[in-house]
From TrEMBL:
Compositionally skewed regions (Gly residues) per UniProt: 700-738, 755-767
Keywords recorded for this protein, A-Z: Carboxypeptidase, Cell shape, Cell wall biogenesis/degradation, Glycosyltransferase, Hydrolase, Membrane, Multifunctional enzyme, Peptidoglycan synthesis, Protease, Transferase, Transmembrane, Transmembrane helix
Entry-linked SUPFAM superfamilies: beta-lactamase/transpeptidase-like, Lysozyme-like
Gene Ontology CC annotation, any one: outer membrane-bounded periplasmic space
Residue numbers spanned by region Disordered: 594-615, 683-767
Biased composition (Polar residues): 604-614
Species of origin: Streptomyces lincolnensis
Family that this chain belongs to: In the C-terminal section; belongs to the transpeptidase family. In the N-terminal section; belongs to the glycosyltransferase 51 family.
Protein name (Swiss-Prot/TrEMBL): Transpeptidase
Catalytic activity field: [GlcNAc-(1->4)-Mur2Ac(oyl-L-Ala-gamma-D-Glu-L-Lys-D-Ala-D-Ala)](n)-di-trans,octa-cis-undecaprenyl diphosphate + beta-D-GlcNAc-(1->4)-Mur2Ac(oyl-L-Ala-gamma-D-Glu-L-Lys-D-Ala-D-Ala)-di-trans,octa-cis-undecaprenyl diphosphate = [GlcNAc-(1->4)-Mur2Ac(oyl-L-Ala-gamma-D-Glu-L-Lys-D-Ala-D-Ala)](n+1)-di-trans,octa-cis-undecaprenyl diphosphate + di-trans,octa-cis-undecaprenyl diphosphate + H(+); Preferential cleavage: (Ac)2-L-Lys-D-Ala-|-D-Ala. Also transpeptidation of peptidyl-alanyl moieties that are N-acyl substituents of D-alanine
């Protein structure tokens, strides 16, 4: 049995013999002799390979992982993301001092020997045998490069990294063979260039360009003699010679490099001596990796872009393929984010909702007709600390959002109206719209099983003064619950399903909407991006365009850039132009004289929209648009556990929160800033017949021509409590205006799917 040291390792004699075996093998290979590993040299030890000749002939060098830069639509940088912070540069962009320093300290005979330095092997063998350990290595710079390739190929897999760096004879043999191949194929200059780009310099910096930026905030081509010596010295042990954490040790190591450069004649002894007297002169740039560093509050949009990339097959057939491309980086991604719009959204959110408020707010803007996401922000910043979150409240769960989205309240009602118009119902459609009624039953679904109100449940409008008959325009302005329940009973659920399918309205978890009448009252959880994009279809006169966040991607490959295919917005007709124009006319009334007056723009631009507030005031919405921008604002608790009554939001006290008084102003200010300096466009308005007002109840015609007798109805957003508090019939109508009672209608238990829990505890499906 071979003798072992007390520590369990090989004795110094055995280590020397093992080292000699590799050295002899190296010499044999250099002479062109292929020797079996299991033979005279006794190389069949654990960790070796069966035969040197059986190794693959070519070293596969993966593309070096680099930083990816994410840009806005104007070319401004949003953030840089990377698995490894690296910017590949050519040798011409590296200081000559740096080139000489790394060669002098790592492999001073680099230009004299081949892939293996036999003199170095023998020198190291002698020294290690004398010391009884491994006091000196004999790897050439070429061998070190090959080892780094193995590490790079291992990526972030700790098991593969361990295999790539394990001190076994088998790995050493592979390293030797590939080093010979690399020397033959690349030549010294290219090997040096590759080595400088692949090696680790500590402080998360891979490659000399990243290291120069990290330690000195300059380019690698501008490094001085002293700076170059410092960086070259770090490579042997990035943790031990880290100048940020141990200046004394790093200085000592730098001076050793300078001395070695003088010994080999790269610099004069005088130059080296002068350089040793200089301070380290660090000007450290902190690593800025990831979407958390994004400018203008665009962290959530940045993460959305990342998730789009990793989930879309256009970027790779499998999830693993896409993740590999993302991690390798070197991408320049130009997005659809408009900096003016993003800044406006962020400023509006900060003005109206504080990050330490009990509730949060999220806002998303999109461009009608293109699907481009222009802005995405929320009141609680991206992060992991107090009053921060990593959940993107604007998007579906698949893209980092809540599990189910958030119940939308009355903002769903325009979808019901659009479905009825497509079915041929007139814009002047009238229903009795009583204050209180039983849910109609049965209600036809898309299959042969109608929905039946088995529990004989009732619903009510917001206030007892809200009672019909109402026509569509006034019912939309007042958001009359019973009107839209009667409408969905009239046309059935299938036309509504067809409409929402055309608008790609899905629950926050990706499921289709359930065929239950509760959808008329906004009981199902949706995301702000879904709502903003669906309303953009109205602005685009019925053309739905899928949301897109990426304009173009280029990938650096060597000295060239290659364009990658990116997913495009797909547009399809979701409704007729007449239907869309009619909805635009109806929703203009909501902003002009209905529950959304506080969201109205003041610069003469036409706008349309709808408010929504859910049961117990746990969610408040405003979704609105102009002809050239559409946006949704949600305010509420991500956990769905805060009732927004007797509450301060953004420093303002609210007895009760409504869709018009909190989300509405956020939308108004965000859109006003986003459109500043942009062309003013107009809707294609259609005439909607209004019958003569009934003189008995003081109802106006919705255009300010009230004929009231003092009993006007308040403009209350009746579905879930959004109250405008304006006298029915506009400024000319008599009457006492509306009151703001709590929502009192109930929803049958079997009307919606209970949705509780998830990543952040969101509850879905409230009425």
């Amino acid at each position: 049995m071979p003798n072992k040291r007390s520590g369990g390792g090989l004795s110094s004699t055995q280590q020397a013999a093992k080292f000699l075996g590799v050295s002899v093998l190296a010499g044999a290979v250099m002479a062109g002799i292929a020797l079996p590993a299991a033979g005279a040299l006794g190389l069949a030890a654990k960790g070796s390979v069966e035969s040197f000749d059986e190794l693959p002939a070519n070293l596969k060098t993966p593309p070096l992982s680099q930083r990816t830069t994410i840009l806005d639509a104007k070319g401004g940088q949003i953030a840089t993301v990377y698995s490894r912070d690296r910017t590949v540069v050519g040798l011409k962009d590296v200081s000559p001092y740096m080139q000489k320093a790394i060669v002098a300290i790592e492999d001073s005979r680099f230009y004299q020997h081949g892939a293996i330095d036999l003199k170095g092997v023998l020198r190291a063998l002698n020294k290690n045998a004398q010391s009884g350990g491994v006091a000196e290595g004999a790897s050439t710079l070429t061998q070190q490069y090959v080892k780094n390739v193995f590490v790079e190929e291992a990526g972030d897999d700790p098991t593969k990294v361990a295999q790539a760096t394990q001190q076994t004879l088998g790995r050493k043999i592979k390293e030797l063979k590939y080093a010979i191949q690399v020397e033959e194929e690349l030549g010294k200059k290219r090997i040096l260039e590759n080595y400088l780009n692949i090696t680790f310099f500590g402080q998360q910096a891979y490659g000399v360009e990243a290291a120069a930026q990290r330690y000195f905030s300059k380019h690698a081509k501008d490094l001085t003699l002293a700076e170059s010596a410092l960086l070259a010295g770090i490579v042997q042990s990035p943790s031990r010679y880290d100048p940020v954490n141990d200046e004394a040790e790093a200085t000592k190591r730098r001076n050793i490099v300078l001395q070695r450069m003088a010994e080999v004649g790269d610099v004069s002894r005088t130059e080296a001596a002068e350089a040793t007297k200089q301070p380290l002169g660090l000007k450290v740039s902190q690593p800025r990796n990831g979407c958390i560093t994004a400018v203008q509050g665009a962290s959530f949009f940045c993460k959305y872009v990342e998730r789009v990339f990793k989930s879309n097959p256009v970027f790779g057939k499998t999830k693993e393929d896409r993740a590999k491309i993302w991690n390798q980086g070197g991408l320049t991604i130009r997005t659809t984010l408009d900096p003016q719009s993003q800044n406006s959204v962020e400023e509006s959110l900060k003005d109206h909702v504080y990050k330490d408020d009990k509730v949060a707010a999220a806002s998303t803007l999109v461009e009608p007709g293109t699907g481009k996401i222009l802005a995405m922000g929320q009141s609680k910043p991206y992060g992991y600390g107090k009053n921060e979150t990593e959940y993107n409240f604007s998007v579906d769960a698949a893209y980092g959002g809540s599990n189910f989205g958030f119940p939308t309240g009355s903002t769903f009602k325009p979808f019901v109206a659009a479905a009825a118009l497509e079915e041929g119902r007139p814009a002047s459609q009238e229903y009795s719209s009583p204050y209180q009624m039983q849910y109609p039953s049965p209600v036809q679904t898309c299959d042969s099983s109608p929905w039946v109100n088995t529990r004989q449940e009732k619903l009510e409008n917001e206030a007892d003064s809200e009672k019909g008959p109402y026509r569509l325009q006034k019912a939309m302005e007042l958001s009359v619950n019973t009107y839209f329940v009667q409408m969905i009973s009239d046309i059935g659920l299938c036309p509504v399903m067809k409409m929402t399918d055309g608008l790609h309205v899905r629950q926050g978890n990706g499921d289709k909407l359930p065929e239950t009448p509760s959808i008329a009252l906004g009981a199902i959880g949706l995301s702000p991006l879904t709502m903003a994009n669906a309303y953009a279809t109205f602005a685009a006169r019925g053309m739905y365009c899928s949301p897109v966040a990426i304009e173009s991607i280029t990938r650096k490959a060597g000295d060239e850039r290659k364009s990658l295919e990116v997913p495009k917005s797909t547009c399809s007709r979701a409704m007729s132009e007449k239907t869309a124009d009619t909805i635009n006319t109806l929703l203009r009334g909501v902003v002009d004289s209905g529950t959304g007056k506080e969201a109205g723009l003041t610069d003469g631009r036409q706008s349309a929209g709808k408010t929504g507030t859910t049961d117990s005031r746990k969610n408040a919405w405003f979704v609105g648009y102009t002809p050239n921008i559409s946006g949704a604002v949600w305010v509420g608790s991500a956990m769905q556990n805060v009732e927004m009554t007797d509450i301060r939001i953004g420093g303002v006290y609210h007895g009760e929160v409504y869709g018009g008084d909190t989300p509405g102003p956020i939308w108004r200010d965000a859109v006003s800033g986003a459109l500043e300096g942009k062309p003013v466009e107009t809707f294609n308005i259609v005439p909607i017949p209004n019958p003569n007002p009934n003189p008995d109840n003081g109802r106006g015609d919705g255009n300010g021509n009230g004929n009231g007798n003092g009993n006007g109805n308040g403009d209350n957003d009746g579905d879930n409590g959004d109250n405008g508090g304006q006298a029915d019939g506009g400024t000319d109508g008599g009457g006492n205006g509306g009151t703001f009672p709590n929502p009192t209608f109930s929803i049958p238990e079997n009307w919606f799917q209970g949705q509780t829990g998830g990543n952040n505890g969101n509850n879905g499906g409230r009425g």
